Amino acid sequence: MKPTRWRLGLLTFGLGAAAALAAGCQSESVYFPEMPDAAVPDVPVDSVSDSTVDSDVTTVVNPVGQACVGDEDCDGFTCVNDALLGAFGSTGLSVPNGMCSSLLCDDTTCGEGATCVDLEPAFGASVKICLRLCAGLADCRWEEEYSCAQPLKDDPRSVCLPDNIIVAIECDDGHCDQE
Description:
The chain is an alpha+beta fold. It has four helices and six strands. The chain has a domain at 71-170. The strands form three sheets. A two-stranded antiparallel ribbon has the order 1-2. A two-stranded antiparallel sheet has the order 3-4. A two-stranded antiparallel sheet has the order 5-6.
């Protein structure tokens, strides 16, 4: 019987201690120790006068490779879309959501981050077009069926192109051998 009384005594002590702790936690006041203001800088901050900030500076983004509906979306470049491909007589090829570019280009007209590529293998005739340079799939509009590819065997540059045009280039004008 002694072990039972001992357990009962321990239980009573535990309940009493818990009640005392709970009563202490219900205090209306909370103590916050005095702390120095951390917002005061250790070193004085140099002020910048409004005259030293150039408000005319803007970041220019090269639109080559961006999606477009019309030329007005391309900041001086051409919107290459399915309608334009059709006007050139290309059937079976598409440019998902359009692509800002420049036709009849050279490397000086494409701007930073882009290059001029001749897509003759896809179209059967010389078609020089500005394309966005890339190092991998993440640099292209992969969610819109664009990939980073090296379209010309003798050219080490990789560019963003619609997947269906990459296939057309690899299949020699879109006609793959059926094995």
